[in-house]
Amino acid sequence: MKAGERLPPLEIPVTRTLIVAGAIASRDYQDVHHDPELARAKGSPDIFMNILTTNGLVGRYVTDHFGPGAVLREVAIRLGAPNHPGDTLVLTGTVEHVDGDTATVAVVGSNGAGRHVTGTVKVSVASPAPAPGAGRTAGGAP
Q: What is the pTM of this model?
């Protein structure tokens, strides 16, 4: 983990199921996240993803990259273009700063309409624990 390191892009198909499931999981029952007709009545072409689902996807993107020892310390995001069913969200990231075991990662998520999300994530990555038996000699003594 070093400043300038780029995380590989992650493509996430934005399905109606993902949008609705994310809204339900985060207890966001606003009709624009599950009812296409009411979303259209409010000026949207279709239902759209809520910020909590986006926040979770950004966190997943960073922790998937840094592995099972990764702990999110801070997530700060701003939404832009909405995610509608049929879009593909492409997340990219760059390590901006490293301080000890903590990295600050700039994340951008785009779809066909433009930037859906921008933000930063602070993540700590603990050194992995030694494997059982590591450091022992052939005879079993340390």
A: 0.86
